[in-house]
Amino acid sequence: MSRNMRFRGVRSARGMCLVGLMLWLAGAGWVLGEEAGRLALNLSNEGRHEAAATEYRRLALAVADPIAAGQWYWWAAHEYARGRQVEASNRMLDRAEDAAPLALNMPVAWLRAENASVAGDWAAARFHYDSLRLAADAESLHETALRGAAAARLREGDADGARQTLAGDGPELVAAREAMAKYAGRRDKKPWVGGVLGLVPGLGYVYSGEYASATRSLILNSLFIWGMVEAADRDLWGVFAVVTFAEMTWYSGSIYGGIDAAHRHNARRLNETATVVRGSGRAAPDMAAWPLVTLHFQY
């Protein structure tokens, strides 16, 4: 065999060894990544969401594939969200979008909407639910997004927009549309009316349907007024002053209580309607597909 042929053979063998080494390293990296992912999964199951998010972030930084990095960042965002760390979750979603801008549209939109709902940012929640509704390729996810967008609009104070969002022939939305019709058929209580009616102890509470509080206010104010009269009849002016001070406190409480009762009534009415509109079903990551990021519908 010639020297050149021996040289080419050695070089070819070295090349094959190099390729084999690269494949082995890639396989080892995948195994290590999977093992680290399992650690994060176990931490999550133990309720240690911040620690799990940290492990997912390490995985995202360790991989070269941008789609894989985006998925690990998304899982980190999900763990932060489960730990109620909304800002940290949104930062991880930013990184997920930077790494894989097109691959994670639906999961990112869904988690951003959920984060905004937790933070009470209803304008942002509506925007992201609308984005999810446009991108959803499954009927169940489309319904989840539609309900979420309608509930967010309702909480923004846009009841007409919420009704328009729910408009359609879907039988699964009948209860939500009925709840919106009931909501529109009644009016909020006016806090100033509750305050004025509170000039008569307990009547401001009655206006907002808080009958137990109305009874308590009427009884206590009546007792203090009776104590004032009795103290005055017996010339117990020191007792009269103390009882009068206490009565003024309870009497002013009747006025402000009527105002607060109206606010509570309106908040209860809104929350009850939004709960029905949102429904009991929720989107969630499909853990059977982990570490791939896919959403499924669950009750």
Question: Summed up, what is this model?
Answer:
The chain is an all-alpha fold and 299 residues long. Helix content is 77%, strand content 3%. A two-stranded antiparallel ribbon has the order 1-2.
Would you give an account of this structure?
It is a single chain. With 299 residues, this protein is mainly α. The chain has 2 domains: 15-158, Serine Threonine Protein Phosphatase 5, Tetratricopeptide repeat (Alpha Horseshoe), CATH 1.25.40; 191-278. It has helices spanning 3-45, 49-62, 66-82, 86-99, 105-119, 122-135, 139-156, 159-166, 174-184, 191-197, 203-207, 211-233, 237-278, and strands spanning 282-285, 295-298. Strands 1-2 form a two-stranded antiparallel ribbon. Helix 1 packs antiparallel against helix 2 (49-62), helix 7 (139-156) runs antiparallel to helix 8 and helix 8 runs antiparallel to helix 9. The longest helix has 43 residues, at 3-45.
Note the gap between the termini: 73 Å
Mean pLDDT: 82
Our estimate of the beta-strand percent is under 5%
The CATH homologous superfamily of the largest domain is termed Tetratricopeptide repeat domain
User: How many strands, what sense, and barrel or not for the largest sheet?
Assistant: 2 strands, antiparallel
Tell me which CATH architecture of the largest domain applies here.
Alpha Horseshoe
How are strands sequenced across the largest beta sheet?
1-2
Structural class: mainly alpha
Number of strands: 2
* CATH-defined fold name of the largest domain: Serine Threonine Protein Phosphatase 5, Tetratricopeptide repeat
Q: How many helical elements?
A: 13
Could you name the CATH class of the largest domain? Mainly Alpha
